[in-house]
Write a structure and sequence with these properties.
By secondary structure, this protein is mostly helical. Helices cover 66% and strands 2% of the residues.
């Protein structure tokens, strides 16, 4: 839907470049709906430009509009067929729609112009893996590793390809190399453990999974696999603990419930074993192996009617399953159904006589139940594949099918053009805004007396919030704030000396990502009332965000073929720019020494300036003012680690995790020594 243009943007013929800048601000700060509205304006004014189509496609792919993203990238390539990023994003959009051939075409086209682009080689390899073209995948991965011999994900992918080709020796070599390159990444340890499980090296597999779990404690698959390793070493209690942990993380995990049910039955925990098989049968009502196990457990607990019901379902599916008749006869007799028991016993006797007469059950009867009576004695007889429906294997632990192993890598497509900062980073700055993301973990309401007083004055269209989890605008909110800008502009004509009204319009400009206009309004607010600290606070925030955006420009526009210009623009960000931000926060603290968020934000700026000791002093003050300030603990913990004080840093991170910042635990693992292999 078209938006009313801002008063400052009415001269569209001249100002499309500025609208593009605002649009890309919104894109960088993940305000995708808003950015699309701005890109629409540029396209309407200058439909011959490729950039707005390209960046609108990028916004759409972040909103999971894959068809729209593909169409926009196609339009961008019609206007400029040399844009590597457009091929890259269109390829990803095609992958998400299952069009792997189209994606391969895009990645090959892009590689003609950028033959050393690791992301392109990465995704191209994964497309070939999805198509099961393992020869082509290995060729691509070989090319990738010639360009970047230390690119760890390529070794993981090549190891997976080798596993699919049944080459465990090569797979193991690649997983060993991945661990050598990145010992703090759990994927390498988890992948090598799968090979060691297949080789029957259960203790070594358990050791690898210990390492993987140490680094990624919320991965249910690692616990499922370690339970299997422990089961093979007869550590049933340890295996059950692992299934418990896996099901805490993934309550709907089929393997976890089925196998835990078997182990609970083995240790005599019959009632809880029944609960596990109840769950399995709720997911898969036709799972006769689970039904038979539940029947055995029901009989064990005295529920003979329930047991007979389960046995009957199994026998209807497998009419030549002698064990089923035996147990049903036993259950019927115990519940007083002598006639039914005799019928089952007679049927069982007939089947035994028939088997003796023929020597073996006919292999041509089509009954999979009787294909092999000695299944439990064959090699690997303690486990069965999930797809194995042989009823005689009802007591075996279930393992994933080969097709399900290694799926972690086939979904790890890369290629979004935004700056993906994968390094450990500080918790973000606090802002004054109307919109906040909802967190399932943290439920803190941030408060300051003066901000509450401002809200009581009813000068804002919505209650002002203090948060560092800003929510992007919806389309309705975008329209709302554009309309407010017009209304506030009219009000300022009537009352141009009102500092608070200037501030309110500045917030609207900030929310629609027009940073220049926002800074202008905050500056006017300060000139009108030098004691109004929220204007200093927000001007510091907006300036800080502008600097972060400028630094990321070269990455954001790399796919558009403008690396040099952006590199120059990114390089223009200096320590002096951050000092200007710091001066605004100095004024906040001078005017409101109890405003804890001023110290916190200044600590972040000082960290950017690498003045870690001064940053520590600000985080200390923030925690002194608010002993439950989770983000301050997190950032102080990282700062202490930057200074080499890991022990105190980890203590702070632990406190941050306790207060709701879950990512703190992963950081702690990075800086805690792994146990010996």
């Amino acid at each position: 839907m078209a938006l009313v243009l801002l008063p400052t943007l009415l001269y569209a013929q001249i100002n499309t470049e500025r609208v593009m800048t605002i649009a890309r601000n919104a894109l960088y700060f993940e305000d995708y709906v808003l950015s699309i509205q701005y890109f629409n304006q540029v396209i309407n004014a200058k439909p011959y430009l490729f950039e707005p189509y390209f960046f609108r496609g990028l916004a759409k792919i972040n909103l999971d509009d894959y068809q729209g993203a593909e169409a926009d990238c196609t339009e961008a390539l019609k206007r400029n067929p040399f844009v590597v990023g457009a091929y890259q994003i269109r390829g990803l959009a095609r992958i998400r729609q299952g069009n792997f051939e189209g994606a391969i075409e895009d990645y090959r086209a892009a590689l003609k112009y950028d033959p050393e682009n690791l992301v392109l080689w990465h995704n191209l390899s994964l497309c070939h893996i999805q198509k099961k073209d393992y020869v082509a995948a290995k060729d691509d991965l070989g090319s990738l590793l010639r360009i970047s011999p230390r690119y760890m994900p390529a070794y993981l992918m090549r190891g997976e390809v080798s596993l699919n080709q049944k080459d465990t020796v090569q797979a193991l070599q690649d997983f060993d190399k991945a661990i050598e390159l990145e010992k703090y990444e759990p994927d390498g340890w988890g992948a090598r453990a799968i090979v060691r499980l297949a080789q029957g090296k259960y203790k070594e597999a358990e050791d690898d999974l210990d390492q993987a779990i140490h680094l990624s404690a919320r991965n249910a698959g690692y616990y499922i696999n370690r339970a299997l390793a422990r089961f093979h070493q007869n550590n049933l209690r340890g295996a059950m603990r692992d299934y418990d942990l896996a099901l805490d993380i993934d309550p709907n995990n089929f393997l976890g419930h089925y196998n835990r049910g078997l182990l609970r039955a083995q240790v005599g925990d019959d009632n809880r074993a029944i609960e596990d098989f109840d769950f399995v049968l709720e997911i898969e009502p036709d799972n006769m192996l689970a039904a038979f196990n539940r029947g055995l457990l029901r009989a064990q607990t005295g529920d003979y009617r329930g047991a007979v019901s389960d046995y009957t379902k199994v026998i209807e599916t497998y009419p030549n399953f002698t064990t089923g008749y035996y147990y049903r006869a036993e259950a019927r007799r115990k519940m007083g159904d002598a006639k039914g028991a005799e019928q089952d016993e007679f049927k069982l006797m007939q089947m035994q006589i028939d088997r003796r007469n023929r020597g073996t059950v006919s292999q041509q009867s089509g009954d999979v139940a009787d294909n092999a009576e000695a299944d439990e004695e064959e090699e690997g007889g303690k486990t069965r594949k999930k797809s194995d429906k042989n009823i005689r294997n009802f007591r075996k632990i279930v393992i994933a099918d080969d097709s399900e192993v290694g799926q972690r890598y086939t979904s790890d497509y890369r290629g979004r053009v935004q700056n993906r900062n994968v390094v450990i980073k500080l918790e973000p700055m606090y802002a004054l805004t109307y919109y906040e993301k909802v967190s399932d973990v943290k439920h803190t309401v941030h408060f300051h007396k003066y901000i509450d007083e401002l809200n009581q004055e009813k000068i804002f269209p919505k209650p002002l919030r203090i948060t560092n989890m800003e929510a992007p605008l919806t389309e309705e909110q975008v329209r709302f704030h554009f309309a407010l800008i017009d209304a506030h502009t009219a009000a300022l004509v009537e009352d141009p000396q009102n500092a608070k009204k200037r501030f309110v319009r500045g917030l609207d400009f900030y929310l629609v990502q027009d940073f220049d206009s926002s800074i202008d309004d905050f500056t006017h607010s300060i000139l009108l009332d030098g004691n109004f600290f929220p204007a200093y606070f927000m001007r510091a925030l907006v300036r800080y965000k502008e600097l972060e955006y400028r630094k990321a420009e070269s990455t954001l526009r790399e796919g558009a073929g403008q690396q040099q210009a952006d590199a120059e623009q990114g390089a223009s960000v200096t320590a002096i720019d951050y000092e200007i931000v710091k001066k605004d926060l100095d004024n906040v603290i001078r005017l409101a020494p109890d405003f804890v968020y001023g110290y916190y934000n200044r600590g972040n700026v000082l960290s950017m300036l690498k003045d870690y000791r001064a940053a520590l002093a600000d985080y200390d003050k923030a925690i002194e003012l608010n002993p439950d300030f989770a983000e301050a603990y997190f950032n102080r913990g990282l700062t202490r680690i930057f200074l080499g004080n890991n022990k105190e840093g980890i203590a702070d991170l632990s406190k941050a995790g306790e207060l709701g910042i879950v990512s703190a635990y992963n950081v702690i693992k990075r800086f805690t020594e792994l146990p010996d292999e």
